[in-house]
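User: quick one - fold this with zinc ion bound?
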Amino acid sequence: MEKRHSSGLRPRPTLGLGGVARDAEPAQHPALPPVQAPAARPSVMQAPVLVLNATFEPINVTAVRRALVLMLKGVAQAEETNHTEVHSTSKAVQVPSVIRLLSYRHIPQQSRALSRKNILLRDRNTCQFCGEALPASELTLDHVMPRSRGGRSSWENLVASCYSCNNRKGDRTPEEAGLKLRRRPRPFTLHTSRQLMRLIGHRDEKWRKYLFY
Ligand SMILES: [Zn+2]
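Assistant: Sure. Structure tokens for the protein plus zinc ion:
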């Protein structure tokens, strides 16, 4: 389980597009001082945690480390734990599997930053031309309408592509290169996020009641 998620949690280079890439987690309150999460094995600290709004609506997926920080700050509480404990200097804390924010947070419709990581997430690490699922390191971003011909760096014009398809396409449109897009690229919406939360959480029984309704 930890292995399955580790590749998605490493920091990745992002596109220099002006928009700051954010992780899949709620924004920190700027006035709050930083809180140290307890020490534990890195794999435990990187396991995915489902984040619910105060209304129990699933809004995000974050890592255990970040979830513990939100709990220690009093911003969130654990709704489900996974029977593992981590120890800080003074106390043991159950590792959360699902947390809930204590005050309601408005989630804007378009809350995802345009970044390499988020585009690969949207496209499920799958080349949008040949359909092969690959590790992130073997995928690049392709401008559907090439930059040299005015194509923009946008959700609608960037797709995950393997290097082979990307080379084959070159400075051409998919039609000109004899390639076909699997799906029309769309912005990352809450709907997309929820699909991904289900994908990430389909093996975690404790996520089910919050995600499959
Ligand atoms: Zn390909």
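One thing worth noting: The chain is about 25% helix and 20% strand.
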